[in-house]
Design goal:
Helices cover 57% and strands 18% of the residues. It is α+β, with helices and mostly antiparallel strands and 412 residues long. It has two domains: 214 residues, Multidrug efflux transporter AcrB transmembrane domain (Multidrug efflux transporter AcrB transmembrane fold, Up-down Bundle), CATH 1.20.1640.10; 189 residues, Gyrase A, domain 2 (2-Layer Sandwich), CATH 3.30.1360. The longest helix has 35 residues. The protein starts with a helix and ends in an 11-residue tail after the last helix.
Amino acid sequence: MNLRAKSLLKIGVILFIAFFLAYTLAYGIKIGPYQVLPVKKAIKLGLDLQGGIYVLLEAKPKPGETISDEKMNAAREVIWKRVDQLGVAEPIVVRQGTNRIRVELPGVKDSQKALEIIGKTASLEFIGPDQKIILTGNNVSDAKAVYYLNMPVVSLKLDSEGTKKFAEATQKFKGQPIAIVLDGEVISAPIVKEVITNGEAIIEGLSSIDEAAQLAALIRGGALPIDLVQREIRSVGPTLGTDSLAKSLRAGIIGIILVMTFMLIYYRIPGLVADIGLAFYIMLVLITFIALDATLTLPGIAGFILSVGMAVDANVLIFERFKEELRSGKTLKAAMDAGFHKALTTIIDSNLTTIIAALILFYFGTGPIKGFAVTLILGNIISLFTAIVVTRILLVNLINTRLITNKKFFSA
């Protein structure tokens, strides 16, 4: 096989890969037991794009109390358990600074209910007639909402310590009430009719199965080890989130089309090759997002759109060098090799500077800023690959085919 045929084959393979990736991202693909979802279903959206609530909680120490890392971590775990009971897809519960916890709940519609569950103290106690505490919520190993005699109740299962204490208490207070107190309020005070030795009990007096389910979730989550106050609350409706996503995508598409059009008009054949490389870049970024199970946010889209412009920046440097070499009288292949070689140092330097700045943003920034920084870093790394590898392979093999030899198609 001669050089021209090999070059045509390489170009064909690259174009086939591009079309295959584009089809897979647009429509998905299924091969045997393996299935790849289309990008609109595979990529996760942050709460600013699909709606939800953002809550910033701050620890409020009591007089003489010290807020330790241990208490903050325990509080984060309790809130995570409560959020998990809400069934929220991909929630974010992380510490922010030394005394704050950030909670993001994408897709949550009933924000008031979510806030009540997140911030409630949920201090559960079983108190005997002598006003002494028999059990606490820490002795409850499981709690769930069920119907008992057609009435909504919370069914409790106690741990071994709680089972022993409850058996002793029910024997001692048989025929007397044991109060079940939540956050200082008596929610039920059933009369002990028999000794309970199996470690199971129920909470009665609830108005609905939903109330029982919410109480069960609080008990399963446990009590917060410290008091938390809500410092910031943002609620994004699903309509607003959808509108933000649509406008962001529209802006991104318009920006990409303008960049591609400029490259094609100004640089001609190299510009066309750069556009193919840019298409590769966009698809590789989306694939990377899906592979990393990343969550796409508005700042992330901004970082992505910015990185699109920077992706062609490397091509601009290469093509300007390429044009200079052509004007000096070199052949197409010699000019192309010289253009890539002379522009390489500048390309690596500019991208490395951007990556360092993005790393600083990631280290010192909060959630949305981190998303912007991550997208920018990924974009720069992938753009280096597409500019130095994909674009070069296409341009080298296109020149080798000698289908277009007129230098006017390669230089303005």
